[in-house]
Fold each of these.
Amino acid sequence: MKKLLFPNEFGFDLPDAVEVQKLQAQYNFSDQYADFLVRQNGFEYWAFYGHPNRQNFIVSELAEQSVRTHEALKVLCSCKDNQLLTHFIRDEYIDYFFPIGTDPSGNIFVEILLGSYKGYIGCINHECYTQSASDFIKEIGQHYATAEQQELDALRRAMPSIFIDQGRLKAFDSLKPEEVLEFFVLYDWDFCSLTSRSFSFFINNVIAIEKPDGHFSLSLIDQSLKSKRVFE
C-alpha cells in the first residue's frame, strides 16, 4: 500500500506564518492544520497526477493488508484562496466547521471547531452546503415525514436533541452548537462521516491506489467503518 508523502511540492505558495496565525485566530482551527498551511499550504491532485516523477512522492511503508477505503481526496485548500469559505459563511456553518478540501465529487472535508468532536476531520455531503440551512432542514423533515417507524426510531436514537414531540425537526438557528454538531456527525443519511480523530492522522493516512493504466487515485484508509466511521 503506497502512502502519499507530506509535505510535497503539490501545494501552493507558502504563506507567511503571521498570515496563518491571523486566519487561525479568526476561525479557531487546530495547530496541526495551521502547521500544515505553513509547511505545505494545500494540495492539488492534478499537479500530482501529471507529475512525471510522482513515484518519488509515495512510499510503500504501510503494511499490505486487506483494508477498505472511503472519502477520496482531490484538493486541500490553501491559506490564501479557500473558495469554500464563501459557502460556509453563507450557510452559517463556519461557526462549526472549517473547510479544508474536497473529494472528486465536491463533498467537503472539514475540521470540526466546537464541542467534543473539536479537531476531528469529517466529510460533508455537497447537497448540504449548497442549500440554505433552512431549506436543508426542511428537506430532511419532508424525507422523514413519510419514513417508516423503524427508520424514524433509529434517527431519534442518534439525535435525541433534534426532534420535538411531533417528530418535526427544530429550526437550525434554534439548536445549540453541540446539537448542530451531533446532528451532522451522528446522522446516518450521508451528510457527515467522521474520517479521523485529527488533521495529523488524516494527512498521514492518504494512500495512492495504483490503477492498471499506471495512474493513481488518492483515498483515506478506513479500518473500522463503524456507525461513526472514526479511526481508532
Note: Residues 2-222 form one domain.
Amino acid sequence: MRVLLTSTSYPASAEDWQGRFIANMAKALAQREDVSLALWAPPGDLPEKTVAATTQADNNFLERLSKQGGIAHLLRTRKAMALGIAMELLFRQRRALRKNKPDVAHINWLQNALPLWATTTPALITVLGTDFALLRLLGMKLALRSVLRQRRVILAPNAEWMANELERSFGDLAEVRPIPFGVDNPWFEVVRPPSPANRPRWLAVTRLTRNKIGDLFSWGEGLFGENRQLHLFGPMQEQVSIPDWVKYHGPTHPAELLHDWFPRATGLITLSRHDEGRPQVMLEAMAAGLPVIASDLPAHRNLITHGQNGWIAPTPDALVEALIRLEDSGANQCLGTSARRWVKERIGNWDDCAERYVQAYRDLLESA
C-alpha cells in the first residue's frame, strides 16, 4: 500500500523533543513489507525505506512553523497571524497529496485533513487532544464535514475518551476507531532501584504554558524544596514565572529522560488543565515503572486507575496524600510495576501500533 503520512511536527535530530511520536510511528510503518511510506513533515532523519514528500520550500516553511511553536499553538495564541500561515500550510499539503497519489492518506491532526478537499483519497485521520480546541474555531467543524463526506474515512483518536464527541460531530460521515500510539521498547527495559527515602526526586515533563503547568506551582508551594525536589523539563512556550524552589532544566529529549532521569526518579507529576489526548510522556513513564500523579482529566483517567497503576490528585490535599504514599519504597515499586504491566497489556510497542494502523488501511481500501 502506498501511504502518505503527513504531520506538522517532527524531530530535527535525536535530541529534539518535537514530534518524537511521529518519528516512532513512521519508523514502525516504514519497516513493514506491506507499506510503501512517503512522509510530509518538517525535515529530520527519515527512517529507512521512507521517501520524503516535501520540497525544499516545504522544509523551509515547516522549519519556521516549528520554531513558532506549531500551527495549533499559533491558532490559540496569535489568531490573526495564524490565518495566513494556515492557508499556506493547507496549500503545501494539498500539493503533496496530488503529487504522491497515495492509496491511503494518513493525516495527523484534524485540521490537516482540510487539504483533502475535492479528492476521493481514503484517509485515516489521527485525532489528538489539541484537536478539540480547534474544533471550537468558527467554521472548522463545517469545513471538516465537507471534506469527510467526499471519501471513506476512519477517525482514529489516540484515546477512547475522545470517541463520543467525535461520534456526535462526525459519526454519520466517518468510522470512529480509537487507535492508541505505541511505546518504544527501551522504556519497558528501565531498571529502577528502590527510591531513596531521604530526598525524593519528582519530575514534571511538559511544554511550559499556563494550562500545561496547571496547579503545579500553586499546589506545590511549601511541598517541594531541597529535601523533596521537583525537576521541571520542557520548552518555554508562554511566559510562565517559575518559582525558585523548582529546578528547571529547559527542553529535554527522550534519551536524557530514559538514561539519566527516569531510573533515579520517585515519580512523574502532571497537574495539567490542557486539552490532553493521551500524553505520551505519561505512557513512557508508566512503561518505565515510574508512578504517575495526575490531575483529574478524562485523558488521565483513561490511563490511570486511581491507586492501582497511578494516582489521581483533584485537590491539594490529594496531592499531599499522593506524595506521602508514593515516597514509601514498597508502595512506589508496587504501583510502578502495575503501571508497566498495564501499558504492556493495553498499549504495547510501536510495532503493535503499526499493525493497528495497517489493518485500518486495509479496511479503508476494501470498503472504498
Note: Residues 185-346 form a domain with the Rossmann fold fold (CATH 3.40.50.2000).
